Amino acid sequence: MRGLAVTAQMTLRDLLGRRTVVLLLVLVPLVFYAARRDDFQGQAIRFASLGLAWAVSTVALFATNSVRALEPRLRLAGHSSVGLYLGRLTSTVGLGAFVAALYAVLVTLDQETVNPWSAVLALVASGTIAAVLGLLVGAVIPRELEGMLVLITIVGLQMIIDPTKAVAEALPLWSTRELVGHAVDGVGDVDAAIVHWVAYGVGMAVVALAITAVRLRRRRHLEYVGAA
Amino acid sequence: MASDDAVFRSVPAPASSPTVPSPKVGGLEVRSVTKSYGRRRVLTDISFHVPAGRSLAVVGANGCGKSTLLKVCAGLVSPDRGTVRVHGRLGYCPQEMGLDGFLTSEDHLAWFGRGRGLSRRAAVAEGSRVAAALDWSVPRRQQVRHLSGGTRQKLNVTTTMLSDPGVVLLDEPYQGFDHGSYLDFWGLVDQWCDEGRAVVIVTHMLHELNRVHDVLDLSGTEVD
Fold it and tell me: B10 forms bridges with which residues in the sheet?
């Protein structure tokens, strides 16, 4: 799978090269967390998770769009579509998990929860699923502004919609809310949340990979003769 | 060789293009390519052949389909009809920057070179050789967004050559070059032909058409 490791490395270098983005990636969830810290138990965790999802999914969206013109040339240079996508997936999910881990430490130290491990799991689920979601939206919608509006809608809907409604479970961040509920109130199905998290993560990644592979496919009119 | 609308002609071979054994076996055969965007037809039944060691300039008015033709040749755009046969690997240098502004030049060389299995060090060394021929020294730490337009274009050309292509497709590759680099670029084209590569250049520089072997005029008006 040529190109996976170097693509992961270059995606990280690109993101870490945007210092303001790195700062905001860490600060946005903190702002959300701090804004609701004095509210009743658990609300700060919910909003930290929301801020984390917004920040990470936006970064993943831009990570996709910033290399849109570069990728066809990398394909011609010998990289595979799968390697290019999985490299980007690895680095953005890793970055999401890293920021989530920072907030897991903060929440564990700063909040009293019924099930602390569920709070940790909720934040990691939020950071990782948001990365996959951002890559999928970036693959489907090539323009950044439209992509941002879609992300705001999806992530915002997940927070404002009644979690007991069936439509809430159809949204990609449902696992996060379920896990926060279990962490704070002791209610919520952890097993179902984990299944949802994994299923949506894998499902969205497969769809985004398929779209990327189609976009970067070798066209039928092109025939290579004796390529070295 | 070309369609009725397009005009294809050969010009005397460049003086600096001696016949030497070719380490590459490049070549490009375009047959009956037709392409429309909606109701607007931009390419009609275009056919041409660029054998190993030859260069072709594609000229014509704005919007006549030069860049579209190159994208069809690179496999980035599907034609409505027609085929493209490529001998060897393809290298494509787009008119718009196909680069990542937040990476360094060395990062680009490493990324492109990895596609051929090169280590970072080998890719940077090989890229630096191409860059030197364009009178450019690859900076180590500077992000691409801080480079001048001409320097970014040199990186564009350099990354294109890192895959060691048999067919080199260049869409107005010298934009922003200073005069010296511009002359160096045409010297490089001669060198690539000497190495046996097939080179296609979209250009508006009509006074340089004596530097290429063949000319394809997509506007249907033969170039003087």
Answer: B214
Q: Tokens 């730490």 appear where?
A: B141
- Listed in sequence order, the DSSP H helices in B75-142 are 105-114, 120-133
pLDDT tens for A125-166 read: 999 999 999 999 999 999 999 999 999 999 999 888 887 788
Q: What is the pTM of this model?
A: 0.89
Q: Is B179 exposed, middle or buried (0-12, 13-18, 19+ CB in 10 A)?
A: exposed
Q: Which ranges of A2-77 would DSSP assign to H, the alpha helix?
A: 4-17, 19-35, 43-65, 71-76
B199: nearest Cα among B26, B69, B74: B26
By the CB < 8 Å criterion, does B127 face chain A? no
Instruction: Using a CB–CB cutoff of 8 Å, tell me whether A59 touches chain B.
Output: no
A223 to chain B: which residues are within 8 Å by CB? 83-86
ipTM of the complex: 0.90
Single out the residue of B190, B187, B192, B154 nearest to residue B173, CA to CA.
Answer: B154
Q: Quote the minimal CA–CA distance from A17 to chain B in Å.
A: 6
Pairwise CB contact (< 8 Å): A74 & B78: no
Is A74 an interface residue toward B (CB < 8 Å)?
yes
Closest B-chain CA to A69: B98
